[in-house]
């Protein structure tokens, strides 16, 4: 299949129901057909020519369904909104996001109770220390088979790949990052100290998730952060080098590498293993 449109070979083979088409070609074609009206029209024409029995069957089914569909009442606005939200977040993600917000609030309260934290005194700010890894927990929750009862159906549809995992990641970041901005503003922690590490951790989670599963990758990175950075920082009470402005170029490099790996392995997110 070309970058813009499906090839005639794929369209005709799909219309005939050829079994020799590769599974990844079929998946890519179905995903492309969702967004390309031109290729859908070509497929319709191909089915009419190569599989008239299928065309007749579809016509019969549609003639039976059309009056029934017309009698179905319009979906209420609240349900339509809920349906749109379900394409970005699973219902079971909400408690996890509430937990992340609660952890951020507790870190903020501890920082407020310690006036020296985050204000240049050298004392570590809990908001600064936790901000790089908090979104990772939300991403893990939004892409975990244990928290998504429909994960098998989700992973089998054409849009289950990189597009879906990016949607869920963006939904988590949209909710968590503004909260961290507020926490940083209240405690005097600049966004430059935590935003780039936060995005770098998220991209690395997705990059490793294509190999070992998003949830496993998130838990492993959080454990490494806790052991290598968080625990020593709490013991010494000093802001670690990883969260100083001197370390931002390294975080930028990690972010770039993570994005590159995600793009290069974008097909890995369409399999059930990514939900581990």
UniProtKB/TrEMBL annotation:
Classification lineage: Bacteria, Bacillati, Actinomycetota, Actinomycetes, Kitasatosporales
Keywords: Membrane, Transmembrane, Transmembrane helix
Biological source species: Streptomyces akebiae
Name the record gives this protein: Zf-HC2 domain-containing protein
Ranges annotated as spanning the membrane: 85-112, 124-144, 165-186, 192-211, 218-236, 248-268
Coiled-coil parts of chain: none
